[in-house]
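Lab notebook: predicted structure, single chain.

Context: the supervisor wants predicted structures on file for every construct in the current expression panel, including those that have not yet been purified. This is the next one on the list. No modifications to the sequence; it matches the entry in the shared construct table.
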Amino acid sequence: MKRMSTDQIRQAYLDFFKERGHAVIPSASLLPDNDPTTLFTGSGMQPMLPYLLGEKHPLGNRIADSQKSFRSVDIEEVGDNRHTTFFEMLGNWSLGDYFKKEQIPWMFEFLTKTIGLDPKRIYVTVFRGNDVIPRDMESVDAWKTVSASTGIDGKDVDFPEKNGMQDGRIFYYDEKKNWWSRAGEPAKMPAGEPGGPDSEMFWDFGAERKLHERSEWKDQPCHVNCDCGRFLEIGNNVFMEYKKTANGFEKLAQQNVDFGGGLERIAAALNDDPDVFFIDVFTPVRELLQSLSGKTYGSDEETMRAFRVIMDHLRAATFLIADGAPPSNRDQGYFTRRLIRRAVRFANAIGIPTNFTSTIAKAYIAEYGKAYPALASQAESIALVLDQEEVQFRQTLQKGEKELSDFLSQHDTIDGGKIFYFYETYGFPRELTEEIVARQGKHIMHPEHFEKAKASHADLSRTAAAGKFAGGLADHSAETTKLHTATHLLNAALRKVLGPHVQQKGSNITAERLRFDFNHPEKMTAEQIEEVERLVNEAITADLPIAYHLTTVDGAKTEGAIGVFDERYGSEVKVYVVGDPASGSGQIFSKEICGGPHVARTGMLGRLTIQKEESCAAGVRRIKAVVEDGPADIETAGESA
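Prediction complete. Output recorded below exactly as produced.
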């Protein structure tokens, strides 16, 4: 097989789809813009959802990218040979254009000819069908055709989870495996959620790689979706053509293709090594950790797990800080802090000295700087943030160790729930507390209470997140659309009252209220808040028209549109204008780069009330506001004539 770096694979993929009429767009931020349904961008399709639902993309109906992604649910999984919290998702989309008969041959060509994977070691899965959605025979036929073109028998078999491989090449699975929506399988989808059957692709590392000699696998059949370690999913073709309704499923107005391929996993397949941490992007950091610790990666399981956690967590933290989530005790910053602290704890366990996190970050920035220039431009500030967090955490560890010692000096036993307290409050790994307890000749009571406390904490965190991020702009309801438009008016009014230095630093919109973050060095006065409210409501009362036009990034700059001009934008953007350009400059209230949607006229908003103004970070203020008394039915803004 070919030897290709991760950079080369990424570029080859983008070039492949550019040659097939796709507009290549930059990665969106890891912090979703105006999507309160989730804390992080966890897949390539997330920023594309409005266009999958039918909104016109400014660059056409064929799009490709490599999307930065972060999944916080995988933090505890990191330590094996394939899980990472941060990853890049190669993506291509057909927004009502081509479908299965084009996508499947293209993916087979890219994998086998462009990057040179052996077609004999690629296996695929398809949707088995259920009582409502039919079996995906169109995908089966396409896979049979491409397999035959290379002399491979594309045998399709059912129930591999019960009967094993059966000499098959194409395998049927149910909706738990081969159906994709953000909510999961069809029964879990809320009304309005899009989804569809998918066809996944797996790389076979070889029968000798399977781990069935381990007791938990020895009595189970080996198949592509088992967990024995032999197979690795490298890509998923989602054929998004359905929408859940109150009465069941109906076809979307357009058939979509949503492909997502893990760049690191494809690189591992091309490397023909199931350990993703042996791909080239990790090599400089792996070697650096070996030098710092005096230990060798792979020498034993404990050392290898520590290396993997450090390599993954500090890569993720570096990208999160660059995208605007420095470590903190709230929102996305909570996870950045958790990643850094776990990395420090594992570094301590293998003897890595203090003040190492910024050194690791600089190695990653050197590795990724070409693909993501924003990393290089923030290198020094990222290093400073990591240094400060590491120093602070080491002080917290010392404080925690003293509190634990004080506790043990007064008690002969410690409960498992108390051990979890030290884990959550001070970052003490369970093993460290147990070691200190044993060293002092004390005893642990009810160790199972640790896992119970941990599970309870996780449930509370999930519940809080679900409540905090319920609803959202992604549903494009009337209320969220109105509040989205209100953020544009609010942004413009803040710049008029506080000055042109004001820039949006984040937003969060539910059906009930908007939250808008902006840079400003001091607390707003009551008079300033009142003036901002007045300006916004004057614009609403004036019932100004709203429409968008397409232009280039340079064109948007020239006409004075508001926007953060960085690599996230493609060559063509939407500029939403609030006001009538034909009536003179005095009638333009707001002009801002945005993907939409927005109401057609400001009068549809009702009245805006600012409920709260507060600090949310150093030099960043936060406003929470509502709009009330607007009409229930709205029209959305269209393209200007």
